[in-house]
Write a structure and sequence with these properties.
The protein is an alpha/beta fold and about 575 residues long. Helices cover about 50% and strands about 10% of the residues. The strands form 3 sheets. A 5-stranded parallel β-sheet has the order 2-3-4-1-5, covered by helices on one side. Strand 3, helix 6 and strand 4 form a beta-alpha-beta unit. Helix 8 packs across helix 9. The longest helix has 21 residues.
Length: about 575
């Protein structure tokens, strides 16, 4: 009779255990030192070795070829053989899901007082112990706290949070981790070699990733592939028999998305669906692939983080360079939200295709540094295929912080009010004592040329803001710059802590002295008996403010980059 791989190659000793070295080592040391607890709680996801180690521990405690507990059971005596098959009269395996009532626990408790028939210990292995009722748990409390000397309990659960705290406090808890992809792949290769089954390395790695940390799941998948009778086992079987998208097809889909080829992207999706894949499976495969690209893009090819074959690594590195980190992060998070929607929608294909088209036709997820680099080099931003040619509206909030300073020079067009940078008027370099009054008149006369000399360091946006101000006072170690009444927004922008510090440092270095820097706003002198003049000046201020904002290099860069136009400018009122 055929025995499935998960049973045929079940671990028999502590040394055979794969991926749970810490737990196996701790149990071996406990046996060596005689510190064997009366109750254990093994926690972990399915298929990671909880029941296997429980059986190994039972054999270690009851092996008949040794006078006491041993870390190396013989696996040949009557007790070891019976434990392997689950037929030992002194080692009782109980399914907590089907024996979860208080009556079954009371029966267990009544039988526990009797000594074992032939072994040293009577051992109860209760699988899925979290399925016991509260009454059943309470029935266990007394015997767990003061058990007979010959009784040992081993509980296994996938949901330890459902086990009563009073039960957990009476047990030694062991948390079993998910088995790594590398450990699963190596174990599968070993089994295939023992079974004399030809295989491709790419297949083993793919199956190991599909196992999601569960050795039993990996062995079950491998059993299904062997049952196909195809030789050698290859990755083509994953799509045909396991419903797992071929990673090469997923990479091809991502590639056409990066090329903004909408028609080809829809064709690729259609091909995946025609091969029997569900929309949810395609979304899951895209998330996994994009996650690898995201890691490669941001951290490089780190073996422990990206598990791929050499051929897959080469293709992934090429694809990762076609996206920036922001685009990959956005796509992963958007697909994660789409996954749940697709599973509960009556039109999953439409939702999937809409998202694929959104990724394919949208190029708005590029980060601002890359955008500014493209614009400065004259490349501009290509409109996405099928995107409308009309400009998109942008609303500028005048109270929001200034756009981030680009690391490259913005477009060559300069605002009309920016001082000419061709002026050669020298700026005085004579050092002045720190914290003393400066020559404010001399500074005023050289202000324009001073700003020109600082344009490269501060950037055109900051220089544009400062062009609306003039030195007003330099006393007691404090330099005050006064802004025009219409430049309230510019003053607010300069008062940003980072920008203020940058301006002060630049001026201090240029003037060769140290001082504090403050900004003030010149109040308009409206005559009480001339309301018409006040209204006229206010309207002029608004027009000037609008022009200043529209001519700001940062705003102009964003408008050009996104092919947008300003439809409205709103000023946030101060509270």
């Amino acid at each position: 009779m055929y025995t499935v791989l998960a049973r045929k190659y079940r671990s028999q000793t502590f040394d055979d255990v794969v991926g749970q070295d810490a737990s196996a080592k701790t149990l071996k040391n406990a046996i060596k030192t005689g510190r064997i607890a009366h109750a254990y709680l093994f926690c972990g996801t399915r298929g990671v070795g909880k029941t296997s180690i429980a059986r190994i521990l039972a054999k270690a405690l009851n092996c008949l070829n040794f006078d006491q507990a041993t870390t190396t059971p013989c696996c040949k005596c009557e007790s070891c053989v019976a434990i392997n098959t689950g037929e030992d009269i002194d080692v009782l395996e109980i399914d907590g899901a089907s024996n979860n009532g208080v009556d079954q626990v009371r029966e267990l408790r009544d039988n526990a007082i009797y000594r074992p028939a032939r072994a040293r210990n009577k051992i109860y292995i209760i699988d899925e112990v979290h399925m016991l009722t509260v009454a059943a748990f309470n029935a266990l409390l007394k015997i767990l706290e003061e058990p007979p000397a010959h009784v040992k309990f081993i509980f296994a659960t996938t949901e330890p949070n459902k086990v009563l705290a009073t039960i957990q406090s009476r047990c030694q808890r062991y948390d079993f981790r998910n088995i790594s992809i590398g450990d699963i792949a190596n174990h599968l290769k070993s089994l295939l070699s023992q079974e004399n089954v030809p295989f491709e390395d790419d297949l083993v790695l793919s199956v190991a990733k599909m196992a999601n940390g569960s050795m039993r799941d990996g062995l079950s998948l491998l059993d299904r592939l062997i049952s196909t009778g195809v030789s050698p086992l290859s990755t083509n079987l994953l799509e045909e028999f396991l419903g797992q998208p071929n990673i090469e097809r997923i990479y091809d889909l991502i590639d056409v998305m990066s090329q903004q080829d909408a028609a080809q992207a829809l064709t690729q999706v259609d091909a995946l669906i025609r091969n029997g894949l569900s929309e949810a499976q395609i979304v899951d495969a895209l998330i996994d692939a994009l996650r690898d690209l995201m890691v490669i893009n941001t951290a490089g090819m780190i073996p422990d983080l990206v598990v791929l074959t050499e051929q897959q690594k080469q293709k992934a590195e090429v694809l990762a360079k076609k996206f920036d980190a922001a685009a990959l992060i956005y796509r992963v998070t958007a697909l994660e939200k789409l996954r749940w929607t697709v599973k509960n929608s009556d039109t999953p294909r439409t939702l999937l295709e809409a998202s694929i088209l959104r990724f394919t036709l949208s190029d708005h997820f590029i980060n601002i540094d890359t955008l500014l680099t493209q614009l400065s080099s004259g490349q501009g931003q290509k409109p996405a295929m099928g995107a409308p040619k009309k400009k998109q509206p942008v609303i500028v909030n005048t109270a929001s912080p200034t756009p981030p300073q680009p690391t490259v020079s913005p477009p060559a067009q300069q605002p009309q009010h920016q001082p000419s940078q061709t002026s050669k008027t020298p700026v005085s370099q004579a050092p002045m004592p720190a914290s003393q009054d400066g020559d404010i008149q001399a500074l005023k006369s050289q202000w324009e040329s001073l700003l020109n000399s600082l344009a490269e360091r501060l950037g055109p946006s900051t220089i544009t803001l400062l062009s609306k101000a003039l030195p007003a006072q330099w006393k007691n170690g404090t330099l005050t710059l006064k802004f025009d009444p219409s430049a309230k927004v510019q003053k607010t922008m300069c008062e940003n802590s980072d920008r203020t510090e940058a301006i002060r440092n630049a001026l201090q270095e240029r003037l060769n002295t140290r001082f504090h820097l403050t900004f003030t706003l010149e109040e308009p002198d409206f005559s009480p008996d001339a309301p018409e003049l006040a209204a006229q000046v206010t309207a002029e201020d608004i027009r000037q403010k609008r022009n200043d904002l529209l001519n700001d290099p940062g705003v102009k860069t964003v408008l050009v980059g996104f092919n947008a136009t300003v439809t409205n400018i709103e000023e946030k009122k101060e509270e």
